Amino acid sequence: MADTCGQVLLGSGLTVLSHPLMYIKVLVQVGHEPLPPSIGRNLFGRQVYQLPGLFAYAKHIIKIDGKAGLFNGLAPRLCAGTIGTLVHSRVLQVVITLRCMVQFIGRETKYSGVFDSIVTVYKNEGVLGFFAGLIPRLLGDVLSLWICNMLAHLVNTYAIDDSMSHTGEIKNCSQAVTGFFASMLTYPFVLVSNLMAVNNCGLAGGLPPYASIYPTWVDCWRHLSLEGNMSRGNSLFFRKLPVGKTYATDQKRFF
Known about the structure:
- With about 260 residues, this protein is mainly alpha-helical.
- It is about 60% helix and about 5% strand.
- The chain is built from nine helices and five strands.
- It has helices spanning about 1-30, 55-65, 75-85, 90-105, 115-125, 135-160, 165-185, 185-200, 215-225; strands at about 40, 45-50, 240, 245-250, 255.
- It is globular.
- The mean pLDDT is about 85.
């Protein structure tokens, strides 16, 4: 019991610290660009037009909602983290948390609390509404696990010799590298899952003209692939302008 409580407290602390990053990442994933491109420097020091990065985006949110605004959607995420630790449930995290965040786009208050949000989802979409975007997320998790296991097996079998010194440290490092590599490869599944969780849910960020309505997650995948947006939101630093897109100041997104 003590170990479980310790895990819950540690997980909650990490969730609070990482929430502003996730919040901004989700807004970028759905295509919200409140700040126009500006001249910056890339990794090689050359001047280029760039989209606002993590810190500029955070300053914009603080300017509108204050510092507390960076933690919109934290309550359901904490509940999801606690429930997930105990009974392996991610319903709150993948649906209600994301919708609380996306409300920033249209300045809505439809999802204002954990229990009220649960009632809202059930009334509007039924039980299936709690599982919006679940299929691509599960597929991504399974694929990520398979990639990690395969790469770890290859590294441990062919690259690491038991006679080598610091074998344990090397294996731990290889696990971290393979995990990062797997997350990069399966990122499109995370993106599609998050978009489907807010798609056509009654919020401005998930409805036309701001966003397209996708009948299935496969349609969402195809649309993002055709537009070259499968990695949107993957990086919050040195963000490049979308090729062939025009920035719409009134809607704060690219077309």
